[in-house]
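Per reviewer request, we include the raw input and output of the structure prediction for the construct analysed in the revised manuscript.
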Amino acid sequence: MENFKFNEIRNLKRLRLLSIAFLVILDVLIIGFLTYMSYRVFESRAMKDSFIASVFPTLMGVQVVLAAAFSPLMFIIAKRLGSAVCEIQDLDFDFTMLYQNYATTVGRFFPEVPQYLISQKGLFVFKNFKTHFFPPDSIDRIEIRRINLGRFGKKCHIRFYENNQFKTKITYESMHPKEADFLVDHIRRINRNITIS
């Protein structure tokens, strides 16, 4: 069991590193390509100014735009994966077995951040900018809405209510995701009196 947890955490950390590295490499490739193309134009025109002085402002402007686009993505990746890794590390033996059962049921090809995690601490719902935490027996009800949009796709929304107030939701791009069925089958381990509709 510890071997599964160790491998899962290691693979999630690798996924985080590879995702951020991909964005950095993409940034470098875009700037490198633009520098090369600018140099070819500079050479063909035989300009008297220095190359750096003529292209530096443009390249810096492009770099600022790329940084504005990629930095939030890197932050989201680091935060979401970091939260998931931290909570998976804290799972006790029984909930590690439950998480292994989840990974097997969902049938993943490679590790991915789960949208929720059932833990001995409660339920964690991992969102891009925030992790919602529900202590044991704090969720009043879960609403599952399955929507068929025809050719525009199918969706399944799982809405969580605490103290009769909507707190957050999870969306899947299919009407009957295995993750939703797994949640319905196992949520009563930490919320015994929950209503599921």
